[in-house]
Structures
1.
Amino acid sequence: MDRLKLVLPNIKYKESIMDYKNEFIRNGDSMDGTAGLANAQSFEEWYQAFKDNLKEETVREGLVPATTYLAIDETNKLVGMIDIRHELNEYLLNYGGHIGYSVRKSERRKGYATEMLKLSLEKCKELNIKRVLITCDKNNIASACTILKNGGEFENEIIDGHEVTQRYWINLL
């Protein structure tokens, strides 16, 4: 399965990251696990926020320390992004979880999300996270399948208005 590698963003990937963002915008997709890429006005703005959010001392207000990775395939193409939150605040405990991820539309249905999540769980072990919470929208069957394939155990659903969030735990012990 090792078709992907997770790498930290850097200036070398600027064009790929902006192309990734533009593909999501063109398709009207949600950019989950991209550390706010959707709202960044430029690569430089996004990259500074990414660096700030790596450490407790510099994390942006209202956020928790997190590491965002690029999922790069064997041809060096950016196929997905995944964000690992080092800890949970109340919002993440209910709705966001430890990990958020997305795969560009042109690369979906190839098993990349499952592989990305598997690789990110190894990163969680390095961060000494023993139980990983992953959530998804109840209507996102593909994401639920990805979580289950990686050992996710369904805990419950949280209803917020018309939105239903499913919560899964993965034990890394």
2.
Amino acid sequence: MSHPDKITVNEKGLSITNGSYEALMEWAEIFRIHYSRCESELYVDRGLIFDYENGEFVEISDTAEGWDTLLDNLERYLAMEDSTWRQKIADCPNETVITIYVNDRMFQPECVNTLMIGDAPPGDGTFFFNGDSVLLERVKEAFAAALGEDVPEDHWDFLHFFRSREWFLVHLCSRSVKEMPEADRLQVRQQSVARLAQQIAAHRPLSIVCLHGDSKPWVLSALQLSGVEVERCVFVESPADNDKDSFVNELAEIVRQSAV
């Protein structure tokens, strides 16, 4: 008689046990999380796939004991930038694998030369470090325009290239503010200044590139609060607020200057 997997979750990580077998995973070691659904008349296979950066992975079926507890704790222990991840699981088409989490620290260089600061993650379920956002596509185009054939076309390869050039992305606001009333957006931005200042202080970049004009007062406040002196702080309107070509051209010029 087979035994179902049992999931145990705590603040350090999770374990999956089956009889004498046990797999341990720490939250900090998780690189990506995917949801997979494959159903037919003969079998049903649904669950999560946890990737390590070295290519190894662990699969957990939704029939495992503790499945609901695992889902309820993902946002508690991981920075799930995509607020629609539960709905994406519910709507996942058959024979499909979708990505619901990427640990952006895996793309963080040891030394950040240029810190790119966005206003907030998009509210459509995409995200720069998920490899599927409009911003990622435009940034990749700007790097290609500035640096030529050395820039990878594949999104995941580009994110590693982005890290190798000592660039990193953070946001003023940790959640999307696009649908908020103006007064609420202003309040959230103001409340986010201290957190952004801590991030700037932690990375100590030489340059800052701000991608949203509306964020400028709060980014400057955070920079002052951080105590970090940067060589330059420039502002480029994001693709959402400006035409694509202007954004790509402006950012490409900044990339060229940083490469000198």
3.
Amino acid sequence: MNIDNTISAVVTGGSSGLGEATARALAARGVKVAIFDLQADKGEAVAADIGGVFCEVNVTSDESVDAGFAKARAAHGQESVLVCCAGTGNAMKTASRSKEDGSIKHFSLEAFNWLIQINLVGTFRCVAKSAAGMLTLEPGEDGERGAIVMTASVAAEDGQMGQAAYSASKGGVVGMTLPIARDLMSEGIRINTILPGIFNTPLMQGAPQAVKDNLAASVPFPKRLGNAAEYANLALTMLENSYFNGEDVRLDGAIRMAPR
């Protein structure tokens, strides 16, 4: 796929972090970019800076996602690129005992479902609706109509203590990559997934420097946190290389997460 001013893209979670870096990288190549996010102030600022459009979207809502695609397509036409970076996390042991009074509690099922709805169902919702739109496009070289990149995490393969829900949500994203690629193969739409390691996103930037230094030291090489631009670079490679399909790729400096 040619990444240039002839195409449009939607980036979920595009107001900050990995999504913002990807939106900026696409826009730098001339792509017309729509940002889906709940952070309206940041999203509007990024969209203005890259000449794109911001759509306030909650990925857990059919109505909100439909409205976002309608606004994006009214501004830029049918997207041929979707990059899904919207997501969140939480941490709690499946069951645990209080050190103070010995009381026992378990992971809230409400909290578990909340995370699954955002990271897994929300991702699939955007993928399914975008792919349906891509089916209306005329096929290009190799019969290609579109390309999609999803975001999982290394926690999909080596989740730490307290990450049962997060790992399940990201493992689900990995697990649906190949079936979706097979679902869409006859329509010329590709899909791949990136599994980021420890990245220096806004969430991480709020951590104490000592914590960040320890995390960086745990990465085999290079001994640092990942940069969002490195995620964006891999996303663009997946979009451009038309033989890249149905793959789940770790981007993590060779880290394998310890139990805690």
